[in-house]
Structure formats: structure tokens, C-alpha cells
Design a protein that fits this description.
Helix content is 40%, strand content 16%. The protein contains 14 helices and eleven strands. A hairpin with a 2-residue loop joins strand 4 and strand 5. Helix 3 packs across helix 10. It is globular and about 65 Å long.
């Protein structure tokens, strides 16, 4: 290319850049080959890839790269480190970690007026925050083996029975719901759910009963399947997983109320692909797509229209009665997030016998 040809091309490109919808605008708005999302691995990551990622790529022509190697708290740290040059576009978190992400300033605010987030306004307020929206929910209650338990538990308080010595399985403090044993202890003591001292006193009593501490949910389920545990804490949704794996269990909605569990998606602060990230988030709450979490995990979708898309059998698995919904407890996750460090230290000392 000679100098005259080069100057001609340069001039035409500069002119095009000034015209909306022109070649220059197209260059500026060119889509990346893929966007990046931090999420969980295993069946969850595979399910997201097969159902949501595939739909996103079909709609946009853009792929999705999953980062499955980090815990939810580590994901927040990665987003914080990358604020000046963000390499991630999306992050999936359970509700207990969202306040930490907000405090660290690592989530973009979701705009219900955005043309890319058409389903956001339909999601009930209890399922969304400024920078995050849940795609699934269930409730934490009591699970037990009727062959090993003489008197079925009815309340969280029943878990402290001498009958369950050495046979109750509970999440370790590092588990995503590990801190929940403190408010559950407070409820079991008949105290306010934020009564930390009552919760830790009940933890001390529980340690004396020699429970099985599980590092992850698979360990909780395995303990129930193989008979090491007779009773434990588990989501209603995962009761069916235990049954499908050969366990014999029943699930109880505690008299004090079951505790909600939510998991969803946020957009990374300073993402370079905000519009695409919005489109992806919108697919996670699309009622025509949310049904896969019921089929795979027995979780309910958060869009009100999702339930009607499911066969009757799955509807019965994932839904709660109106009376139960009124008694589902939404923990104050901001309060608990602020206590996480102190609670972790105290939990470790108590469980270690200190």
C-alpha cells in the first residue's frame, strides 16, 4: 500500500467513525469471542454450560468461559483485585456472600430499565439486590432417616436431643451455610435470631453431642446415604438427590421456620462487556430456561412463571405451600457477613474444645 492509498483509507475510516451505525461504530462495538464467568464446578457448572451458556451463544454468537476454580469468597477477592483492569464479566454467588461483594464494590448495579434485562422487573424483591439476582431458591430444614430415628424431629430445637449423639451431620464453618448454625441455635433456644451469644451457647451444647462436621454438601448427603448420620441440616431440594442416590430420608419444615437459600448472578464491576453480561443475566432468570435447575437439582426458579413450565411431579418437589412461604426465614445476610470473621474464630475455638 502506497502513502496515498494509506491516507485515503485512514481518512475514510476516521469519517466513518463519526457516523452512527457506520463501519467505525461497528469496530468500536465488536463483540469479543467470549465472556468470562466465575461459578461452581461439577454438575452445576455443566448444567449452566448446557442450558444457559448454550442459549447465550446461540443468541449472541459469543462464547462463555467458566472459571470454576474459586470459592465464592475467593471470587469476590478476584473481582476486587481486577477493578482497574477487569478480566471477568460475571460472577455467581449464593446470597450469604453477596453483602461481602457489595461492601467490596465489585458488582455493577443491575438496571431494571435496561433493554437487556427484560425479566428483572418480574423477579420478586426477596430474590434480588442492587447488583445481584437469584436464579434458584430452596429452604433449609431438617433431614432424617426414619429407620434410624425413633421420634421424628419437628423443630431445630430437637436436633439437640441426646438421641442423636454422634449421628447428626452439620456443615463446617467453611461451608457456604456454615455460619447458619448460630442463628439456628438462637432459634432453638427460643431467642431472637440475631442473639449471637445464645447461638454460640447452643453450639457448645452441640459440640458435646459429638456431631459429624461436613466440609461440603456432598459429604452431608453421603453421611446420610451410608448411614453414618441419622439426622442433619439440608435443603428440601437436596432431599431428592439423597433419595435418588439410594438414601432413605424424609425432610421436615421446622416449627421455627425454614431458612431460605438463594443462588444467582451478578455483573463484575468495570466489566468490558456490560451489555453482553446483562443479556446473560437475563437468560438466568428467563422462565423458559429456569426449569433445568428443577430437573437437575430440584431447585425452584425465581421467576414467577417458571413453575408453570414444569411437569406436575417437579412442581410438587420445588414449591412450598402459601403457609410455608409465610414461614420461610430470610436471614439478615449483611449482619452475618459483618460477623463472619469473628464467628469463624469463635466456631473454630469451640469445636476444637477451646
Amino acid at each position: 500500500m502506497n502513502k496515498r492509498e494509506f491516507l485515503k483509507l485512514a481518512g475514510s475510516t476516521a469519517a466513518a467513525a463519526a457516523v452512527p451505525g457506520s463501519l467505525g461504530a461497528a469496530f468500536a462495538q465488536a463483540n469479543p469471542a467470549s465472556i468470562s464467568m466465575m461459578t461452581w464446578g461439577g454438575l452445576w457448572g455443566d448444567g449452566m454450560a448446557q442450558n444457559v451458556d448454550t442459549a447465550f451463544t446461540a443468541a449472541t454468537g459469543v462464547g462463555v468461559t467458566q472459571d470454576r476454580g474459586s470459592s465464592p469468597v475467593e471470587r469476590v477477592t478476584k473481582l476486587k483485585i481486577g477493578l482497574d483492569n477487569q478480566i471477568y464479566d460475571l460472577v455467581q454467588l449464593h446470597d450469604g456472600v453477596v453483602p461481602l461483594a457489595e461492601a467490596q464494590g465489585v458488582l455493577e448495579e443491575l438496571d431494571p430499565e435496561s433493554e437487556n434485562l427484560g425479566y428483572l422487573a418480574d423477579i420478586p424483591d426477596r430474590f434480588r439486590r442492587k447488583g445481584w439476582v437469584a436464579m434458584i431458591y430452596s429452604a433449609l430444614g431438617i433431614i432424617y432417616n426414619p429407620d434410624l430415628v425413633k421420634t421424628p424431629p419437628k423443630s431445630y430445637a430437637d436436633l439437640w436431643s441426646e438421641d442423636y449423639r454422634g449421628a447428626i451431620v452439620l456443615p463446617e464453618i467453611s461451608h457456604s451455610i456454615g455460619t447458619y448454625i448460630i442463628p439456628i441455635g438462637a432459634l432453638a433456644a427460643g431467642k431472637d435470631i440475631k442473639d449471637t451469644e445464645a447461638g454460640f451457647e447452643k453450639l457448645r451444647e452441640m459440640v458435646d453431642l459429638d456431631p459429624i462436621w461436613a466440609k461440603d454438601t456432598d459429604t452431608i448427603m453421603s453421611s446420610l446415604i451410608n448411614g453414618d448420620a441419622a439426622v442433619g441440616l439440608l435443603y428440601k431440594s437436596q432431599t431428592y438427590t439423597v433419595l435418588e442416590r439410594g438414601g432413605k430420608v424424609e425432610w421436615v419444615f421446622p416449627e421455627e421456620g425454614a431458612i431460605s437459600y438463594l443462588s444467582g448472578t451478578g455483573i463484575a464491576k468495570n466489566t468490558k462487556n456490560k451489555a453482553l453480561a446483562e443479556k446473560y443475566v437475563n437468560l438466568t432468570i428467563d422462565p423458559s430456561l429456569q426449569g433445568w435447575v428443577a430437573k437437575t437439582f430440584n431447585y425452584a426458579g425465581t421467576h414467577p412463571d417458571t413453575l408453570a413450565t414444569l411437569p406436575v411431579e417437579l412442581q410438587e418437589r420445588v414449591q412450598f405451600s402459601d403457609a410455608e412461604v409465610a414461614r420461610i426465614i430470610d436471614l439478615d445476610q449483611e449482619f452475618m457477613s459483618a460477623q463472619r470473621g469473628d464467628w469463624t474464630d469463635r466456631w473454630n475455638r469451640i469445636v476444637a474444645g477451646g
